[in-house]
Write a structure and sequence with these properties.
- The protein is mainly alpha-helical.
- It has four domains: about 95-255, Rossmann fold, CATH 3.40.50.620; about 260-340, Orthogonal Bundle (Glutamyl-tRNA Synthetase, domain 2); about 340-390; about 400-495, Arc Repressor Mutant, subunit A.
- It contains 20 helices and twelve strands.
- A three-stranded antiparallel β-sheet has the order 3-4-7. Strands 11-10-12 form a three-stranded mixed β-sheet, with no helix packed on it. Strands 1-2 form a two-stranded parallel ribbon.
- The radius of gyration is 32 Å and the shape is elongated.
- The structure holds glutamic acid.
C-alpha cells in the first residue's frame, strides 16, 4: 500500500481534476484497460472532476475496424460515463488523435524552435544499417544523432526540396532526468540512456510519445493515469514538458495484471478481455467489482462494491504497486454471489439465451428452471450443460444408483424405483405437488428413509449425479410420458445388473 500521497485526494491539489481514458482502437477492451478506465473514472468522480475519453489511433497498423464502437459500447455497458469525448464533444476536442494532425505538426515545429526537437532526414536504409550494426554488437539500437546539428539553412533547403523527414526529440547527452510517480516514487535516469526518439512520423502522424504529452497538456489532464508499461518512457515525457515550458502533471502508473507470476494476462489465452468474460456469462457488475480489486484495496475486508459505492470508497492510497494476479476462481465466486443476489425474474431474463442455446422445448416451465438453477450457477454459460438431461436421455452407469449417504444399493434401488413407478403411473395430475404427495405417501407406507426412494428416482429420471432440484423437481420438468419411460429404463438397467 502506498502512503503519503500529496495532491489529489489530500486536498492540496487546487485545479480541477481532469482524467482521461485513452484507449487505442485494437478491437477489444483488455481487462487491464478496463481497470485503467475504471480507476481513471473513479479518481475523477471522487474529486468532482471530469473524465474524458480520447481515442489514440495514430498507430494505423494496429487499427481494427469497428473497435471505437466496442469502446463506446463497453464503457456504456459498465456505466463509465465520460464527460467529454469524440461522441459527445467538449471544449478540448477533437478527441480522436487522427483528427488532431495539424495540432501535432504545429507543436512539433514549436518544439524544434525551442530546441527540444529536430528534423531528421535519415533514410530507411541508413537506419536499417544502424540497426544491423547495433544487433551485431548485441547493443540496443539508438539513433546516432546524425541530423541533430544540421544548420537551419540546410534543414530549410531540404524541406523545400520536399525530402521526407521525421521530427525527433532532442534528448540532452549528459545529465539526468527525474520524474515523480504517485505510486512508484521518484525515478531518475541518465539522459545518455534515452534515445532521440521519433515524435512526428513521415506520414505526419505523431508517435504515442509525442501525442500523449501534447494532448494531456492541451486537454488539461491531471493526473495522468495509465499502465506501468509507460513508466520507463516517463523521463522523456518530462523532458518534453520542460522543453515546452509546460507544467508536469501528476502521474499514476498502474501495475500490470498477471495471469500468474511472470506471465501477463494475454488476449491469446482467450481470457483477457472484457468481452471474453461478458460473453461467457459473467455479469458486468461482477466483472467491474472484481477488476476494481485488482491492484486496489479499500483498506478493510470489504469485497462487494457497486460502481456507486466505488465512487465513494475509492482512494488512491489503496493502490498497490505490485502486480495484481487475476484469479479466475475468485471472479467465478464473485459472479456466483452476484447471481445469487438477482431476483428469479432478473436471472430469468439473463438465462433465456442460454435456454435457447440448450434447445429447451418452449413448453417447458422455464421460470421454474430459473428458480432451480439460479443459486447453483457460477457463470451463465454453464447453464446448457447443467440442463442437458432435460433434452436428452443421458447414458449413465448403473453405479450411480449406489450412494452411500443415501444408503442406496442396486437391490433397494430396484425395489423402491419399482414401487415409485407403480404409484406415479397412476397420477392424473402431473405437477410437482402431486408427484411429491405420491412419493411421500409411498415413503410413509414403506416406512423407509426419504432418500431410499428419491435417490433412485432422480438418477433414473436424469441420468446425472448432480441436477438442479431433486427427484420431484426433475420429474415435474419432464412430461409424464417421458418421465415414466426414463424410470422404466432405469428399472431395466437395475434388473440387468442384479
Ligand atoms: N493508447 C494507450 C494504449 O491503449 C494508452 C496510453 C495512455 O493511457 O496514456 O495502450
Amino acid at each position: 500500500m502506498v502512503k503519503g500521497f500529496h495532491g489529489i485526494q489530500g486536498g492540496l491539489f487546487m485545479s480541477e481534476i481532469r482524467t482521461r481514458f485513452a484507449p487505442s482502437p485494437t478491437g477489444y477492451l483488455h481487462i487491464g484497460n478496463l481497470r485503467t478506465a475504471l480507476y481513471t473514472y473513479l479518481i475523477a468522480k471522487k474529486n468532482n472532476g471530469k473524465f474524458l475519453l480520447r481515442i489514440e489511433d495514430t498507430d494505423q497498423d494496429r487499427f481494427v475496424d469497428g473497435s471505437i464502437e466496442v469502446i463506446y459500447k463497453t464503457l456504456k455497458l459498465v456505466g463509465l460515463k465520460h464527460d467529454e469525448g469524440p461522441d459527445i464533444g467538449g471544449s478540448y476536442g477533437p478527441y480522436v488523435q487522427s483528427e488532431r494532425k495539424p495540432i501535432y505538426l504545429e507543436y512539433a515545429r514549436k518544439l524544434v524552435e525551442k530546441g527540444g526537437a529536430y528534423y531528421c532526414f535519415c533514410t530507411k536504409e541508413r537506419l536499417d544499417g544502424l540497426r544491423k550494426e547495433a544487433d551485431s554488437k548485441n547493443e540496443t539500437f539508438g539513433y546516432d544523432g546524425h541530423c541533430r546539428d544540421l544548420t537551419k539553412e540546410e534543414v530549410d533547403r531540404r524541406l523545400q526540396a520536399g525530402e521526407p523527414y521525421v521530427i525527433r526529440q532532442k534528448v540532452p547527452y549528459t545529465g539526468t532526468t527525474s520524474f515523480h510517480d504517485e505510486l512508484f516514487g521518484t525515478i531518475t535516469v541518465e539522459n545518455s540512456t534515452l534515445d532521440d526518439g521519433v515524435l512526428l512520423k513521415t506520414d505526419g502522424l505523431p508517435t504515442y510519445n509525442f501525442a500523449n504529452v501534447v494532448d494531456d497538456h492541451l486537454m488539461k489532464i491531471n493526473p495522468v493515469v495509465r499502465g506501468s508499461e509507460y513508466l520507463s518512457s516517463a523521463p522523456k515525457y518530462n523532458l518534453l514538458y520542460e522543453a515546452f515550458g509546460w507544467e508536469i502533471p501528476q502521474y499514476i502508473h498502474l501495475s500490470p495484471i498477471m495471469k500468474e507470476p511472470g506471465k501477463k494476462l494475454s488476449k491469446r489465452d482467450g481470457d483477457a478481455t472484457f468481452e471474453d468474460f461478458y460473453n461467457k456469462g459473467y455479469l458486468k457488475e461482477a466483472i467491474v467489482n472484481y477488476v476494481a480489486l485488482l491492484g486496489w484495496s479499500p483498506g478493510d475486508d470489504r469485497e462487494f462494491f457497486t460502481l456507486d459505492e466505488l465512487e465513494k470508497a475509492f482512494d488512491i492510497k489503496g493502490l498497490s504497486k505490485s502486480p495484481a494476479i487475476f484469479d479466475n476462481n475468485k471472479l467465478r465466486w464473485m459472479n456466483s454471489e452476484y447471481i445469487k443476489k438477482l431476483s428469479v425474474e432478473e436471472f430469468h431474463k439473463l438465462a433465456l439465451p442460454y435456454y435457447k442455446e440448450a434447445e429447451l422445448p418452449e413448453d417447458m416451465n422455464l421460470m421454474r428452471i430459473s428458480s432451480l438453477v439460479k443459486n447453483r450457477t457460477e457463470v451463465l454459460n454453464e447453464i446448457p450443460a447443467t440442463l442437458d438431461f432435460l433434452i436428452n436421455r443421458l447414458e449413465y452407469s448403473v453405479d450411480l444408483f449406489i450412494h452411500k449417504k443415501s444408503k442406496t444399493t442396486l437391490e433397494n434401488s430396484y425395489e423402491n424405483l419399482s414401487n415409485a413407478i407403480d404409484v406415479l403411473k397412476e397420477l392424473k395430475d402431473w405437477t410437482e405437488e402431486a408427484i411429491h404427495q405420491a412419493l411421500s405417501d409411498l415413503i410413509s407406507e414403506l416406512g423407509v428413509k426419504n432418500s431410499l426412494v428419491f435417490w433412485p428416482v432422480r438418477i433414473a429420471a436424469s441420468g446425472k449425479l448432480v441436477t438442479p432440484g431433486g427427484a420431484v423437481e426433475v420429474l415435474g420438468l419432464l412430461k409424464k410420458e417421458e418421465a415414466m419411460e426414463r424410470l422404466q429404463i432405469g428399472l431395466e438397467k437395475l434388473r440387468a445388473a442384479l
